[in-house]
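RETRY 2/3 - previous attempt timed out on the joint model. Re-submitting the same 957-residue input unchanged.
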Amino acid sequence: MSYFDNKVPPKREDRLNAVIAHQDSICGLARKGKGGKSCLIDDGERGFTQGTICLLLPALAMLNSLPDNVVLLHSALGCGSCTHSQNANVRMGSNARRGKAQDGIWLSTALDETDVISGGEDKLERAIIEADRRYRPASITIVAGCVPGIIGDDIDGVAQRLQPQVSAKLLPVHCQGFKTKIWATAYDAVYHTIGRNLLVEKGVAEYTPQDELEVLREQERLARTVNLMNVSSMGRVDEQELERLLASLGLEVNVFPVFAHPDSFVKATRAALSISTCPTHDDYFLGYLQERFNVPSIIKHMPIGIENTSLWIRDVAKVFGFEEQAERLIAAEEAELREALAEFRPLFQGKKVFVSAGEFRALATARLLQEIGLEVVGIRSFHHDHFAEVEYEKLAREAKTDYVVDIANVQPFEEANLLNRLKPDLFLGHANGNMTAAKLGIPTHVIYNTGLAYIGYRGVYELARRLHRQLSNPAYNRNLAENLRLPYSDAWYEAEPFSYLNTRGRSVNE
Amino acid sequence: MSENFVERARYLCSLGGAAATVTALPGGIPILHSASGCAGNFAWTQNGGSGLQVGGYCGGLTVPSSNVQETEVVFGGEDRLREEITSTLKVMKGGLYVVLTGCVPEVIGDDTFAVVNDFRGEGVPIIGAVTGGFRGDSYWGYDLVLQALVKDYVAKGAAKVKGRVNLWGVVPYMDPFWRGNLEGARHLLELLGLEVNSFFTSADTLGGIREAGSAELNIVLSDLYGQGAAQVFQEKHGTPFVTTSLPIGVSASEAFLRQVGAALSLDPELVQRVIDREKRHYYQILEPLTDCYNDLDLQRYAVVVGDANYAVALTRFLADDLGWLPVLTVVTDRVHESGQPAIATRVERLASGFSTNVVFESDASQVLGHLNRVWPRAAGQKYYNSFSPAFVVGSSLDRELALQLGAPHLSVSFPVANRAVLDRGYTGFRGGLRLAEDVFGQIVANR
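RETRY 2/3 succeeded.
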């Protein structure tokens, strides 16, 4: 039986033994990978924790991008208000792809005290019917937050009951934040509903080519069409870079699923290959595409950095037998890029950098930073699972010291303590995650922003260019540090950075 | 307004408003007893809605949070909360710690106050507030934090001090212009010689908040926000309160000064002197706009979309100060029917004699429908009295409406995604000048 036969996808703690609380070093994690023991890392617990995000946020980043879709949050009023910032991505993204900045449509059933006691299913039913009539969308994603998870509302049952009465396709998505610590479960939650509901032909019969030549052409086109998976970690500029590289191998690209119309999702089942840019994102769904539709996939390297981009291209080329073509492309691209990077290298040389992001993003970016001449002195990965072992090995090979790796779902108090000791010259962190380093006076740069280029060869150059700009005048953060203080006690800076790891319950890391 | 959902809610939940409010207090450290994602959700929301302001001394992803999981849902979260508070006191340096509960611990029935009171008993500066998201919106969360302060932090039995007042009704981060608006209102009161405790400006201190019971009057700049706390304050500390609208611009500021003056029985001549001086200054500054106001024909029809504070105050400013024609005023809060008349009457009796149409509607997509009802669309006639030239003052969600009307637009009410706001404010006489600059600036942006 497939996971996709169940209403709710498994959480990553169970499916991948993913962990969020662990202290290690780059060599330590690389060794664990080689010895095949990393699955044995038991997750730790912190006795002090700071707020983070839950799976609802990345799930909404995907769902709000879908044109003609209405996001209906079934939860208390506040869940999903994060969309106010994600909406900027929806506007920019729709402008870049369709020439018009468009707001997403997100609704909330705003469960109140009465609903908590008597259940929210009736309210949800009425909301679905009204949303269908008011917006006439292609799909309504019914996203459940924590409250329905506790009071026992059955969103799948409601969707099933109401589907015959509405014209929109109803898509239940399970995002009960208290149920998983690994917010990457978000991708599984969204893919789960896509897999269960959107990969079948809908309504209109498919266009059937009439003459033989057209049939052959279509077959030939499909034989070189690839799914390029994007769960919202790449902006249009990054998609374009990968499309450029894949097109130069003669491949046609179907970007999936962000900003794709729900009615077009079925195209993904006809592609010759699915290519992931990040194993943290897509493994759950790619397994299903393979199993159910026989679409093979590649999910290994993240095309961030020179080496990783080239490895990513080689893997794709191999599937189609385009190795020679790929080598020529890689050689030309790398040579051109290395020459262009030369002007930035002198400023980077010998500078120390700390990187923080989702595991794969952090590791691939760290590798990029090594390549342009910076020295990595610390990494914080938001979680850890076995897919990343190969990346830790790559980094360990080039590491000058056996630097710290903090597996933490943000937890800036550990970061403040670590940065105060390591005193890096540069910090790269996730959205809303550069504040700590900035107030310590460290030059900072955002590691993920859909308006900026990060991916492929172009991403290396553009990131280097931006870092060069940051380092050329870090006065903004320096001024902050001279005039503000972080809210941590002096005693905390004196304490060991991992003092609160495993001070509560559960097992100790091996 | 839909009965069944809220479209693109222009607020967070009560926990979100409460957390922002504690962050805005001097030395305030929020401790969330909630699921792990709440804090991040608030940070992302402020990022997109609060004019580029996220957190402060302890906000955003820095806030301590118990991050309850399934284990706590099954076994209860009180032990976890106790552990989190103990650790917080060691790691975080603050003046006041405020435990705020989210949906999950409340639904499972954790006794948060039992835990908080143990720490209070040991002399820790800590209070708690029950702010689960299903209890209401972020404006109510602000009120709940104020109520907690009034009940458990403000010292009891303080002797009243003549000329000392507390100032509420502007909600940190939910009003992106909160700092400027509080300072502007504070400045007005200081012109009358009053000593003002406004809780959230850089001039305020925790010591001052503790002594807030000595105020002879509480001034609430809102028909909704802070009303609950003002009532609790009256019961606990015997200080009466007056409710005013947000004093934006010259007419509203004048009325505000007179209302406060009357409530405190101040010398009417003093009040008049202050008003005369400020108006003289205001009109001196406005004077050189006169040619361009006329030459460029800067009078506009307008649609105003905003929260209960702004919808009223902006409409009044446009009609009474600028001489514009705001024909539709959309109040975006989900106001209970019983509370609607108090808000509506404020714009039904404007000094200019102009009257607007008030609707209560949270959903941006429905505003055009309301406008079509009050201003019928063209029906193919040769001569048509069109809704033009027009202007939309609202939130960044109302850009779509402005596009449809072919009108310039200014974001003032949450969410403000497309402006950078630090300490700009629109209250007071000078605030009116700022707002005039901003709306006229939008009209001439392509000049």
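DSSP finds 18 helices and 13 strands in chain B. Closing ticket.
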